[in-house]
Amino acid sequence: MNKSKLLTLLLTAIITILSLSLIINPQATLESSIRGLHIWWGIVFPSLLPFFILSELLISFGIVSFIGVLLEPLMRPLFRVPGIGGFVWAMGMASGFPSGAKLSATLRKQSQLTRVEAERLVSFTNSSNPLFIFGAISVGFFHNAQLGIVLAASHYVSNMCVGLVMRFHGRKEEQIPKQKSSFSLRTAFHILHTKRIEETRPLGKILGDAVTSSVHTLLMIGGFIILFSVLNRMLTQIGIIPFFTFWIQYILQLLSFSTALAFPLLSGIFEITLGSQLASVTTNTPLLQQAIITSFILGFGGLSVQAQVASILADTDIRFKPYFIARILQAVFAASLTYLLWKPLYMNWNQLIPVVEELPVITSPSTPFFATLYDTTLSYGPIITISMLFLYTIMLLRNHVLPKKT
Length: 406
Prior knowledge:
This protein is mainly alpha-helical. It is 78% helix and 0% strand. The chain has one domain (27-169, 182-405). The protein has helices at 3-24, 26-60, 63-79, 84-95, 99-109, 115-124, 130-141, 147-166, 185-198, 203-237, 240-254, 262-270, 272-280, 287-300, 302-313, 321-352, 369-405. The chain crosses the membrane at residues 48-71, 131-157, 206-228, 234-252, 291-312, 324-342, 378-397.
């Protein structure tokens, strides 16, 4: 039997087993689906939609190209990507997964990036946003605002480290001559003006396309979140995850970690929210070990996020393999940085808190800004999601149904 037929047989067996597990465990399937839906319509959709729409508008009006010229002297020497990569990086950190992949794919389709440049950019512009790290994980799961400082620092510094490593990716494939990077406000404005002139769509059409494209992507993301929430639960039900947990426990023992963190780690490999939550409630485990495992999970991103990125990149010639390698690198970097930064950013910081009279709002245990924002998003997120889906449906009917009647 050749490899192709063996793969077909393997995929058939996996899908059949999962389908049977859904039928046998309807209650568990429903609960995990609801959990995934709650994450999507309460947090993911309302937090990502504004960034997606704004990004589409900034690209359409040429503002991204303007920013790209200004950031060229920084991004080209450091990461070997065009200046527009700075915009993608900033938006990726602000909005979270998988914004970096969506923007990189959009710029690649517009030929503003080469394939190698896009692969480098995707590798370090997908990250968790501060709202998730501070609001959901630090305050929501661990009930510890100061922990967010360590997690955020290790996460974003490791992200930059991945970018510096991935700058060497595809050097043999590059055929673009080296260009001298220079800061030119006049050139930047000229490109901005040229891009605006080239955009022939009316303003209403640009806004409509931005909303439609953003909601379409978010619907795809929602499907993956629900799918992997169910998949994770079914693999637990049929004993697959407990089986691999045994081997992870052995690895953790070698690293002198608590074996109780094996199941949260394995769950986090599939879905970061569940893995982080399970790590936070692990008993009889040092907080440092919980933080290291959580950083590893955040750096890896989870197979759910990676499936979202793979789906977005499938519409382009950008390869997924470099992104997957980058996620492994960031997971290791983030876990290592958490260990190194633990004493200066957590232990020493907690000792200084009683001495400081005024603390920034973000780091104050009593009034954490991101925790408040996270609670607000949970309260009003479903309303925003339903409203935008209603608007999206009307726009689809207007664009595809009504023209046929005329």
